[in-house]
Amino acid sequence: MTNDQKKQLETQLWNIADSLRGKMNADEFRDYCLGFIFYKYLSERQYLYANEILAEDGIDFLEIDEDSEEGQEYLEAIAEESIAQLGYFLKPSELFSSLAKRALGNKADGEEIEEGELEQSSIFILGDLTAVLSNIERSTMGKESEDDFDNLFEDLDLTSTKLGRTPKAKNALIAKILVHLDKIDFRLEDTESDVLGDAYEYLIGQFASGAGKKAGEFYTPQQVSEVLAKIVTTGKDRLKSVYDPTCGSGSLLLRVAREVTEVAHYYGQEMNRTTYNLARMNMILHGVHYRNFDLKQEDTLESPQHEGQRFEAVVANPPFSAKWSANKLFESDDRFSQYGKLAPKSKADFAFVQHMIHHLDDSGTMAVVLPHGVLFRGAAEAHIRTYLIKERNWLDAVIGLPANIFYGTSIPTCILVFKKCREEPEDILFIDARAHFEKAKNQNYLRHQDITKIISTYRNRVVEDKYSYRAELGEIEENDFNLNIPRYVDTFEEEEAIDLGAVAKELMILDVEMMKMDETIKGFCDELGIRSPV
Question: According to a count of CB atoms within 10 Å of the terminal CB, is the N or C end of the chain lower?
């Protein structure tokens, strides 16, 4: 997709979102927009797959008579194949395009819709749409894909008064969205294109930028995701598995996949139900087969869902300094028991680190974004930090990031990289990228050259004055395992020396010039017969 095509697509999508803006807040109309996009995707995928099956018979899926005996036989056969391959089934009358045509009434394809025309329409599709979304989930019941589609559309509340005060008003708004969204060609038949996935990612990012503090719960800025993804895929072309214990909308997991030719399995856990639904949709929209992802909805620290499993790549952007129970029972939990201390109740940052390391495979790499305080805070955190370095030697790199690059917080952050089998076990690499960014209106961001510099420095373990340093373990021990980056990377800029002789000479010249100027002013005043100010 060219930049012009992408920009045009983004404009179309934002115009659709604009239909809902003003009626509800950003995260609410996000759920509607992304829900409808997902329904359109499932429909188009069903249509293309059904036509593959029907190709030998020369029949188009939309032309099947659902009420005839022959039509029902076709649908039963297609349903069986679709559920096995796609994980769900939609009848021709349930496809997105079919409902959009119903909303148009007698309008011909391509005919322009006048403003307010849908509001006057008497064709009621709200009930049909509710039934279709329910049928999608029902088609998976008792099947292998049931968990991945269960309650997937629960946040798409078509009875909400925010869509309109009356059923007719709700119907008009939904019809408008369906009709406009139906015009967008997501080109699913083009296997090299990911128009729909890009559209979904674009909208998630746009909603995140407008959602303030809550955005951090479901979205990691793309530049940060790219850094994490490139780190954990260093030296690898394929991954057996990737895991994110706080997966949000799943974008970070999918970003890792862009850095390799194949990811066999995706694993993740997310506490927020709505965000968990977004993540499942995001996986399917990006063509990840339902058998190849395993996302769970639970609190990761309190109720881990992937116990006993180890993963080749582990990434996360956990909620910064979140509270957790730090229950005494966790002292015997395999994730925490070896450390001798639990992370404090008020700051779960190291609890997430311990959880992630527990799930990291011996040959894997882990990269996690954390607040800067984890580098130097004392008490239990200092004890855990010391154990990770002195007893295990698992910490591979510390990367300082610029402030104000995350949604909803301006605090400085860092990336910690861990490996259980390190290639360079004698030292830890420190990278200070805090001053390398582009300043935007409301938020800073990493540029392409900033990302490239971080990754190149990490992969080659380059030492560069005022940017990176390889600290031997003895040096870190001398610093009491305090990892504060300025202790290792000296970014002090010495001020230029002042030549006092030159300054004095310049002042003398200015004095002479001022005296000449005073004489000139006095002369003018004498000619005018007025008192001179000098």
Answer: C
